[in-house]
Amino acid sequence: MPIPRKPDQSVVTTCAYCGVGCGFKAEMFDGRVVRMIPWKEGKANHGHSCVKGRFAFDYYRHPDRVTAPMVRASIDQPWREVTWDEAFTHAASELKRIQAQYGRGSVGAVSSSRCTNEEIFLMQKFARVALRNNNIDNCSRICHSPTQFGLSATLGAGAASQHFDSILQADVILVVGANPTEGHPVFGSMMKRRIRQGAKLIVLDPRRTETVESPHCRADVHLALKPGTNVAVLNSVAHVVVREKLYDEAFIRSRCHWKEFEQWMAFVGDHRYSPEVVGPEAGLAPEDIRCAARLYASGPRSTIYYGLGVTEHSQGSTGVMCLGNLALACGMIGREGVGVNPLRGQGNVQGGSCLGSWPHMFSGYRFVTDDSVRASFEQDWGLALDPEPGLRITNMFDAALAGTFKAIYIQGEDPVQSDPNQNHIMAAMRNMECVIVQDLFLTETAKFAHIFLPGSSSLEKNGTFTNAERRVSMVRKLTAPLAGLEDWEITVGMINAMGYPLRYDDASQVLDEVARLSPAYQGMSFALIDRVGSVQWPCGPDAPEGTEVLHIKAFPRGKANFMLTGYVPTQERTDDRYPLLLTTGRILSQYNVGTQTRRTGNVAWYDEDVLEIHALDALARGIGEGDWASIASRYGSTRLRAKLSERVSPGVIYTTFHFAQSKVNAITSDLSDWATNCPEYKVTAVEVTKLQTSVRSEAGNPVAEEEQA
Ligand code: SF4
Asked: Residue 74, CB half-sphere, CA atoms under 13 Å: how many?
């Protein structure tokens, strides 16, 4: 159908792709979405957008969509379509059978940052009131759980301290382990605008990314550190700050615990963190570390933005704490133009953290072990709740392999493609008696499912997303769900089938419940968001329309904490057999594991994950541009086409993970962050060898056939 010039309807909604959360005016014609126009009044994007939100929306009508619930007795049998009632009844009877046979803790659930706040909240409610345990986790476990831990430990709140526009008042911008130009493009453009106005830029990243150098925008200092050395380098930056007395004593005395600061000062001031010691280990010139420290501390307004290059390490939480410490020491928190800000990869990672899809916390970051907190939920929900923390995603898969965890309900996630050590995940999936997947398409994970519940896309439902600046915005239904139910209605159907009677007239009532039970969301409602456009939490009597900047007068615990951040090198080491380090990231036109964007015209820009390798490493292995290469680690192997690149240093290789057939997670390790189990995606020791170039095409994506002897 040709795209009509004039729509017959337009509806304001929020992009579901990245954590910028751009507002769009969706134009409709004859019940079909035909155009996404960036919304000028959108407070996160001010009328800007990137190629994902603007063009990658047609996946919702893709013929691969599943439009009826399906069941099968085992994963080698064909699917059988059933009614929603049959699907719910069958799922509930399987979950109850398994709990009766193996115990209450043998089942669990996983929610997704692609889902709305209301859906995420209902998934944790499902675990607590229907499964009667706390075996609930969400995919921020594998991306930003260290943010929640590390920022809570230092600043007292696991969220961005600023609103995006704050960067327009920054004098120095420190970007650590993030590439906003590709991963958060609209924010990346705003950052570049500020740099063109004269702000200084420091980047810590193993790659020479677009953020480091692009037309009219170049980092003043690029610390191209060896993957896995973040904590050593950030401690070294702090070392320079304390040794050269660049810290803000007045701020520390009034806002922090001075004695703690003195301990921290002695710790990072130790010779082992001097740039002369850390530099050689991290592959950096000591003077560059000193330069970065002096620039950041001089401000006068310095701000930090960071991403998965900080969190997805065995010391992810420690890395986040390093950033909190640094901001505190230099007094760079609690006003415009400064702060510490995680850039969230998926649209609702912040909501995934806020809404209680954690095995140890209810919504609002309150512990299930706290009797008074639990009592407030028990009173609202009318039943006793389990006081024992439940299993994390990683624990669930380990327990499945051990034979003690037998069933899982996964909403909107594809762990077989997205989680590390894919062979381990697939073995765990095979070991379960009931896998329930709720998604748009038959994903890699759905290949292991016994029950498939067809979900609704973000264009087919009402709800809210919370973006990377804590901004809660409306997701609005543009068209009816293809399979008949919105995702929140599916989870309510599951809860009812399990025997807990539950009813909401619409999704707004779920947010009302969130507001009732979660302090930071206290004043939040669909009506408020409709009236003011979007609302940043905390929102309540003191801030009825939300809060742009956190920590202005005090931290949530009164004073902030300096944490000691000892550097412990990762166990993932290079050796003669695996001499290269693989690190992973994203590309502008594709999103995450590509489930949606691969099914849109955006494949015209990028239709294949490739291996970036430095010319010296390629030459040593006889690999030329476009050659197929095998990448092998201690955990598995895969094949990618080589792209010779100056963006990576010798010894480091890089790829994206947007295409299932790339099987990048077949080679990543199952090492994880010491505090949160966030996987160490960013460091895998590998070897690369050239493959024969015999190529065939499979679903439009070429693969190598034979390995060279
Ligand atoms: S992907 Fe991110 S930057 Fe791009 S339009 Fe969507 S929210 Fe905005």
From this structure: 3
DSSP 552-577: SS-BTTBSB----------S----SS
Distance 8 CA to ligand 1 centre (A): 25
Per residue in 390-419, pLDDT (tens digit) is 999 999 999 999 999 999 999 998 999 888
Q: Give the chain's domains with CATH numbers.
A: 9-61 (2.20.25.90), 70-142+348-458+480-505 (3.40.50.740), 145-342 (3.40.228.10), 580-704 (2.40.40.20)
- The pLDDT value recorded for residue 59 is 82
Tell me the CA–centroid distance for residue 18 and ligand 1, in Å: 5
Query: Which two three-digit tokens encode residue 239?
Result: 């070392």
Burial of 700 (0-12, 13-18, 19+ CB in 10 A): exposed
Higher pLDDT, 660 or 558: 558
> Per DSSP, what are the bridge partners of residue 514?
none
CB atoms within 10 A of CB 698: 9
Determine the Cα–Cα distance for residues 366 and 520; give it in Å rounded to an integer: 11
Residue nearest to atom 2 of ligand 1 (CA): 18
pLDDT per position as a tens digit, 157-191: 999 999 999 999 999 999 999 999 888 999 999 99
- The Cα 481–Cα 489 span in angstroms is 11
For residue 686, which of 629, 631, 618, 644 has the smallest C-alpha distance?
631
Q: What percent of the chain has pLDDT over 70?
A: 94
Distance (Å, whole) CA 399 – CA 408? 12
Return the closest-CA partner of residue 197 out of 232, 229, 173: 173
Give the residues across from 170 on adjacent strands: none
Three-state DSSP string of 546-557: ECCCCCCCCECC
Lowest mean per-residue pLDDT among 136-145, 194-203, 657-666: 657-666
Mean pLDDT to the nearest integer, 443-470: 95
Mean of pLDDT values over 465-480: 95
Our answer on whether the CB atom of 49 is closer than 6 Å to any ligand 1 atom is yes
Residue 144's closest CA among 394, 320, 361, 15? 320
Cβ-based burial of 188 (10 A; exposed 0-12, middle 13-18, buried ≥19): buried
pLDDT score, position 605: 67
3-state secondary structure of 691: strand
Strand order in the sheet with 23-29: 9-14, 23-29, 32-38
C-beta of 17 in contact with ligand 1 (< 6 A): yes
